[in-house]
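agent: user wants the full assembly modeled, not chains individually. Plan: 1) parse entity lines 2) check alphabet per entity 3) run joint structure prediction 4) return tokens. Steps 1-2 passed, four entities, 186 residues total. Proceeding.
--- entities ---
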Amino acid sequence: MNEGIFKAMSDSTRRKIIELLKEGPKTAGDIANQFPYAQPTISRHLNVLKNANLIIDQKEGNFIIYRLNTTILQEWLGWLFEHFGGGNNDENE
Amino acid sequence: MNEGIFKAMSDSTRRKIIELLKEGPKTAGDIANQFPYAQPTISRHLNVLKNANLIIDQKEGNFIIYRLNTTILQEWLGWLFEHFGGGNNDENE
DNA sequence: TAGCCATTTAGCTATATAGTTAAATAACAT
DNA sequence: ATGTTATTTAACTATATAGCTAAATGGCTA
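--- prediction returned ---
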């Protein structure tokens, strides 16, 4: 499994970005406005998510529109369940 | 959701420790022997997992036995699915 | 062209963390 | 008491990353 996706998801700002994008595509500016951080800070977070392939960017005139890469997110969740779900460890001792 | 569990799970060595412990309880030494790192390094990883409440330690004579806290892991996976599973973003544009 | 707007990139600081070796702790055995 | 074993804690180094401000990029509009 891609290490990047874990790092990407391990930051709460980035998880909130993901949740925002579940509502639908949004511009970088719209996303940045939801947070108390400077816009370049959010830009870098977006870049981390993009490198992890969790979001897709698309230039639209003067804006950059981001949307979720639902597939990757689903694959990640699936992988997590495969590896860590249904854990039956011995309860003895 | 507890931030610690994300940080804990975002490291591949720690994920391998979790997978090892799915087989059953193991001593700190047994765990350390599975990795090419010095034992104190693994000890600190174990501590991170313990602080995230993902594993439980138990002193057994001269050894410390670690085992999975299956509940927490399951809860985490459940939370992930609630928040990030079933993502239906608009496919338009 | 000039200027504006949206966004990223660059350069910086502060903090966190993975790795190391050496020392401390704690329980057992002699 | 002394030594041995299992493990953690301490002290250090190197690297990564979140935040900032300032500058650069790229597309509009006039």
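agent: reporting back. The two ends of chain B are 32 Å apart (CA to CA). The helical segments of chain B are 3-9, 12-22, 28-32, 39-51, 70-84.
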